[in-house]
Amino acid sequence: xxxxxxxxxxxxxxxxxEIALMRKLDRRKAIRFIDIALPAASCPLDRQLMLDRFHAxxxxxxxxxxxxxxxxxRAIPAxxxxxxxARVPGVLAILEALYLQFLKIRPHIQKRLKPxx
Length: 117
Hints:
The chain has helices spanning 13-25, 47-52, 66-74, 80-85, 91-112, and strands at residues 4-8, 31-35, 55-58, 61-64.
């Protein structure tokens, strides 16, 4: 089992929903989730850089974007096949291209979501 840490934006309604789902699926508690919107949270990189793009570490290796999502998925049994698929040559590049397109529309999605209490 890999050692996975995920850094997320706890001030982002979209991120909160996604991480809540990942926590629910992570029944074995294999992932350490860190809310970097909290000033006291430790960040391995510049905080704004980490807020702008999804980051995770897997076995001590810092990853971002689609690679970070794939690492998180590999730690969750139900999503592990998708995470393993990302290791097939060319697949991660496609996922990264999709992630970059998502980043363009993310602010519009965030504006439409109401904060979770």
